[in-house]
Amino acid sequence: MNQDHYPSRLLESAITEFAGLPGIGKKTALRLVLHLLKQDLADVEKFSSSILQLKKEIRHCSCCHNISDTEICNICSDRKRDHSLICVVETIRDVMSIENTRQFPGIYHVLGGIISPMDGTGPGDLTIKSLEEKIAGGRIKEVILALSTTMEGDTTNFYIYRKLSKYQVTISTIARGVSIGDELEYADEVTLGRSIANRTLFEASFNNGKAY
Fold it and tell me: How do beta strands 106-110 and 200-201 pair?
C-alpha cells in the first residue's frame, strides 16, 4: 500500500481532518487545504470561526427537533403556517428538501432517523414519543408520513401508524412519485412536491397489500 508523504506535519494533520468528512477523500482534502493556505489569514479565521460558532451555538427546536438559532425555529413560530398539519421526516435535510418545493404549508416533526435493527436503531432512539404527545394534544388534524421509501422507512411508517391510529387524526403518506429505495433529499423538487400534494391515506396503502 502506498503511503502518502507530505512536506509538513501541519499540512498532513489538516488533510487528515478534512478527509474525515463524509464524501471527502485525501485528494479532495489536499485541494481544500491548499486552497485555504492561499487565502488571507482574516478569511481563514472567519471560516474557522463560523464552524466553531455553529457547533457551540446551534440548537434544536423544542417543538419539531429541527436545527434552529433559537428555542423555537422560524417554521414552528410562523403563525401563517398550518399548525394542524404536520409532516414527519427522518432528518433535518428532509425538511430543507420539502421546504425547497414551496408546496407544504404545515409544520414538521424530525424523527432523527428511522427504525433500523441492523444499525441498532429502535423506536426509543427516535422522537416518536414526543410526536405522539403532540397528537394526543388534539390540535393536529393530519399527519403526513414522509420517510424514505426503503424497507426501514416503511417499517417506521407502520410503527408510527400503529402508535397514532387510536387518535382522531388523519394519517397519510406521500405518493410513490419518489422511487422505491430513494431518500427524500435526492428527489427533485417537482417530484417531491407532487408526492406531498398527491398524498394518500396510509391505511389505504396498507390495505392494498403493502408489506411491512
Answer: unpaired
